[in-house]
Amino acid sequence: MTNHYTPAPQAYGFDLTIKQLLNRSKLTAQDQQIVYADKKRMTYSELFVRIAKLANVLESLNLQKGDVIAVMDWDTHRFLESYFAIPMSQYVLQTVNIRLSPDKVLYTINHAKPKVLLLNSEFAPMVKDYQFENSSIEHIIWMDDNGMSSDGVFGSNQARVVGEYEALLDNASDQYEFADFDENTIAATFYTSGTTGNPKGVFFSHRQIVLHALTEAASLGVLPQKQGLVLGDVYMPMTPMFHVMAWGFPYTATMLGLKQVYPGRYAPDVMLNLIETEKVSITHCVPTILQMLLKQAEAEGKGFNGLKMIIGGSRLTKGLATTALSAGIEVYTGYGMSETAPLISLTEFRSDDPEMTLEEDVMRRCLTGKPVIMVEAEIWDGNGEALSHDGKQTGELVLRAPWLTQSYFKNADAGAELWEGGYMHTQDIAYMMADGTLGITDRLKDVIKSGGEWISSLEIETILSLHPAVADVAVIGVRDEKWGERPLAALVLKPDCQDVAIEDIKAIAEKAAEKGMIPKYGVPEQYKIVDELPKTSVGKHDKKKMREIYAGQTQI
Amino acid sequence: MTNHYTPAPQAYGFDLTIKQLLNRSKLTAQDQQIVYADKKRMTYSELFVRIAKLANVLESLNLQKGDVIAVMDWDTHRFLESYFAIPMSQYVLQTVNIRLSPDKVLYTINHAKPKVLLLNSEFAPMVKDYQFENSSIEHIIWMDDNGMSSDGVFGSNQARVVGEYEALLDNASDQYEFADFDENTIAATFYTSGTTGNPKGVFFSHRQIVLHALTEAASLGVLPQKQGLVLGDVYMPMTPMFHVMAWGFPYTATMLGLKQVYPGRYAPDVMLNLIETEKVSITHCVPTILQMLLKQAEAEGKGFNGLKMIIGGSRLTKGLATTALSAGIEVYTGYGMSETAPLISLTEFRSDDPEMTLEEDVMRRCLTGKPVIMVEAEIWDGNGEALSHDGKQTGELVLRAPWLTQSYFKNADAGAELWEGGYMHTQDIAYMMADGTLGITDRLKDVIKSGGEWISSLEIETILSLHPAVADVAVIGVRDEKWGERPLAALVLKPDCQDVAIEDIKAIAEKAAEKGMIPKYGVPEQYKIVDELPKTSVGKHDKKKMREIYAGQTQI
After folding, report:
1. Cβ-based neighbours of A247, under 8 Å, separated by 6 or more
2. Could you count the other beta carbons within 10 Å of the beta carbon of residue B426?
3. What are phi and psi of B377, to 5 degrees?
4. For A361-402, what is each residue's pLDDT tens digit?
5. Which of B28, B190, B343 to mutate to test the interface with A (most CBs of A within 10 A)?
6. Partners of A438 in the beta sheet?
7. HEC states along A365-416?
8. pTM for the structure as a whole
9. What letter does residue A166 receive in the DSSP assignment?
10. Contact between A527 and A489 (Cβ < 8 Å)
11. Chain B contacts of A1, Cβ < 8 Å?
């Protein structure tokens, strides 16, 4: 190859680092607003200053490049500042999932070994008995919205407290020259809650975060305005900033210079009020949060006026989608996971969509959407052979994209398994239609293997959920001597249907089997009526716990 | 830094190569259409097959990786196929600017030294006398829509003709495994027409082209639907594919799986007809093409029904914008140049725009817009000091972005100058407002230096264009013993105003000077009435030629 394409000596090579996401906002959005509930209202120009100040505070701690800095906070402007100042200073941001059980929270901290902890006072009880002597944490930055002082909280470890966040910023210089460096530098790490075993750490480079932001803006931007992202939108997260970085949206919103609203701790009344008063127009959440919000709105007699909402984490059901639409929410599905940063697929809306019935429209919003640009997706059978996209054949969804975690942190074996065969294994069972629409039918680990056949627990859940008495349902596989595994249905009944007969519910599954909608061996024999189904920290059905509680099984 | 972030052995690193732009279309757009005027209609699935076939044809020529392959064609589906097959096979695509004079066309071929020439039969006269013996071209692929054979065209060089494009594809295998390789591999080169001297070659890597496509999709996607890019749009270029790769749009449109329409040679009636029959909804062009199209539509009594059109290359004037809007064209401005791949700034529309008068609306569409995401822009004075963004201070616009040419091909001195001080010099004189809106006031080389002061030729042109008798105007600087340079105005008068007095036109400039709109020394003393102003190959005023013709100056 010729060498005539040599860059000029002073040509700027432009690494894709997080600081570059600020370029457009610095030029065009200095006066745009950022709001933290009723506690703070500032402009982007203040954000830029505060990022520089936080970088100076961190610099004063004499850390090494690549050191981990953990943040335990609700969704605040401080967290947004950390998203930028920490990686832009060449440290690694650890967003701590504070919804895990306290011992798991400490596990993730002991595993990632942060040198600094930015700690919201509300989580002090969770870590105050922590054995700091044997811990990596050398410095604690206290963050507080409730007038709580850190005095005396940490006993003999009090000396580790550097100071209170706002006071530290007040005293810091507002000048900081963020260096250029290799875009493949790791920017952030966080832990998957996982279905089994300890949480696993995923990690993302600056390059990956920038490419995810660009793709997210493009993929949502090219949706029609009723559903798509547009300049003028007001963004508020309702998936926490500690969870897959709020789907990367704080980066995308800041890149575009949108008005941003951070709701703090998730309380339905606060969120509903912010949506109304701050004119929030785009958000994302899991179905549980949507349900809470709808209930609150109904109680207050309010509507949503076209709020755009992407649902992920769990399946959006037709019933919930219909309710949300009629409340004025443009609800649709995004698919992804911690390992995928997370955006992989999105419900597609087009300006040339044909007329659809409400039924068809709702159906589309509830499917898993189509892969976004740059994503390569295949459906693999058990031997790693690609299946055809006929909307019928199901297998594991495997992926390539420029922003997938390249392994698990300090867990090379799990990383190797994740990438076996050169594609990232989602462990989700899916089919793909000829137009690219994905349908997730199950989690690989939730598939029930009965008599050599696979039973989709999600399919059976869907059927059982059609019974008018059923409020919530989960189907798990429990060990069976004869069949290997058999499905068990755990049911929450509606308050006014507590006296329904199990046989009545079972009948709907049998009818579905008769009609060929599910296999005959998919009809559960075992049913548990419970008050509530156990959920994971992110609001998903915790099938691991269900197997423990309902079947005494701690392993699949 | 810790090494716990090691990628898994089989993790896919995902270089940003052009083949990845096809991922989404392969999954979601197999049945989408691509149209070449009335000559070809095919689906994306055919496109994918034809890209593989073209790669096999090229492979049979035993080239080396990095070899240049030149294309001389109108805007056709073949050109689109070349955009992918050539760089995806690790060759360098040279898009030959066929609007240059024949000697300049041959200059660019002699300079880039392609091994293969894909030649539309209509350009055969331009190259048939070319001294192939001393040339780099070893193979010619004949492309033809008019039933013209290559027999006997090339005299003793006939043996270099490999065959006719369609026949070669017919006989090629449809299987080709495109390899992964370094994203920094050069993908494409083309030549700027330039204001002085020989054309200069710019070059772009796979990575740069992919990042440009992502950013273009995001930047246009987040505009409101009336003006922005949306799934369901139908794209047709009206800036040629040889010129800055049709602004990168063929890549962006293919990445998104949009219906695409290629108009061949630009003829207003053909383009107007395609817009109507194929329902073209988004395009881009220079003002000259827009004028042609409006004239044609007026003659045929047709409108444009909300066609989105980005104008670049030359300034969009208020008069033209107003006419276009009233004809149903959502016209607005994009700014860029060959060196910038080209997207740098774009008129911003927002969903929360305040009510505007038509005057304000038109004004905004005619300014140079705001820098798009990832772009860093500064206004520098003559000493490389950044000026403030007050909408008043003018200086040279300098840039950083992930897709700027890193030098000029085989011209290291010009490349070094381009990147002096670590920013890319546009040679455009601009101001920036506090909200990031750019206003280009002049080309650095077109600024008139009179008595130690700078005179903006564009400002004077704007004033003179307000005179009702003036159809077109250009102001150039001509040497003057006393002042160094003085402005000369070249004027085209409207057909029914041929008898207007020069003094009458000069009066409007004097009035503007009185009111402080232009400096007193900005009023030209010299006027030339001409039938037509010389234009460059891309339809811009050719001021270099004007200085030669009107002032006998061959150098500034």
Report:
1. A216, A237, A239, A284, A310, A312, A334, A336, A342, A343
2. 23
3. -130, 140
4. 999 999 999 999 999 999 998 788 999 999 999 899 999 999
5. B28
6. A432
7. HHCCCEECCCCEEEEECCCCCECCCCCCCCEEEEEECCCCCCCCCCCHHHHH
8. 0.88
9. H
10. yes
11. 64-66, 185-186
Output the DSSP codes for B244-284: HHHHTHHHHHHHHT-EEEE-BS--HHHHHHHHHHTT--EEE
Mean of pLDDT over chain A: 92
Q: Which residues of A touch B12 (CB under 8 A)?
A: 400, 404, 419, 422-424
Per the DSSP assignment, residues forming a β-bridge with A478 are: A486
- What are the tokens at A339? 């390992």
What is the Cα–Cα distance from B1 to B275, expressed in whole angstroms?
57
Show the tokens assigned to A56. 């100076």
Q: How far apart are the first and last CA of chain A?
A: 55
Residue in A with minimal Cα distance to B254 = A373
Q: How many CA atoms lie within 13 A of B33 on its CB side?
A: 15
Tell me, yes or no, if A134 comes closer than 8 A to chain B by beta carbon. Answer: no
Q: Which residues of B participate in catalysis according to the annotation?
A: 192, 339, 449, 454
Average pLDDT over residues B275-302: 95
Q: Alpha-carbon distance B108 to B404, whole Å?
A: 20
Q: Does B438 touch chain A (CB under 8 A)?
A: no
**Using CB atoms within 10 A of its CB, is residue B136 exposed (0-12), middle (13-18) or buried (19+)?**
middle
User: Which residue in A19, A27, A252, A308 has the most chain B C-beta atoms within 10 A of its own C-beta, making it the best mutation to test that interface?
Assistant: A27
Token pair 């690494």 in the structure block, residue = A15
Give the position of tokens 């061996």: A521
Task: Please tell me the distance from the alpha carbon of residue B510 to that of residue B519, in angstroms, as a whole number.
Answer: 9
Structure-block tokens of residue A461: 């859940």
Cross-chain Cβ contact B436/A218 below 8 Å: no
CA distance A4 to B511: 53
Confidence of residue A2 (pLDDT cuts 50, 70, 90): very low
Q: Which of A219-223, B129-133, B233-237 has the lowest mean pLDDT?
A: B129-133
CB-CB neighbors (< 8 A) of B230 in chain A:
222-225, 228, 350-351
Q: In chain B, what residues touch A230 (CB-CB under 8 Å)?
A: 222-225, 228, 350-351
Which are the contacts of B115, defined by CB distance < 8 A and separation ≥ 6? B61, B63, B67, B68, B69, B136, B137, B138, B139
Would you state the structure tokens that stand for residue B481, as one six-digit string? 């013993």
Closest residue in chain B to residue A12, using alpha carbons only:
B422
Helix and strand tally (H, E) in chain B?
A: 17, 25
Whether the Cβ atoms of residue A95 and residue A188 lie closer than 8 Å to each other? yes
- 394-413 in chain A: CB under 8 A from chain B: 400-402, 404, 406-407, 409-410, 412
Task: Tell me which residue in A214, A225, A407 faces B351 most closely, judged by beta carbons.
Answer: A225
- Inspect the interface and report whether the beta carbons of A407 and B8 lie closer than 8 Å: yes
Write the ipTM: 0.88
Round to whole Å and give the CA distance between B367 and B437.
8
Measure in Å the smallest separation between the Cα of B1 and chain A Cα atoms.
Answer: 5
Q: Using alpha carbons only, what angle is made at residue B194 by residues B193 and B199, rounded to the nearest 5 degrees?
A: 60
Count of alpha carbons within 13 angstroms of residue B111, beta-carbon side: 22
Q: Which of A494-503, B103-112, B262-271, B494-503 is predicted most confidently?
A: B262-271
- Is the pLDDT score of A314 beyond 90? no
A&B contacts, CB < 8 Å: 259
**Active-site annotation holds for A449:** yes
Of A150, A161, A85, A81, the closest CA to residue A117 belongs to A161
Phi (first) and psi of residue A332, to 5 degrees: -160, 180
CA distance A387 to A249: 33
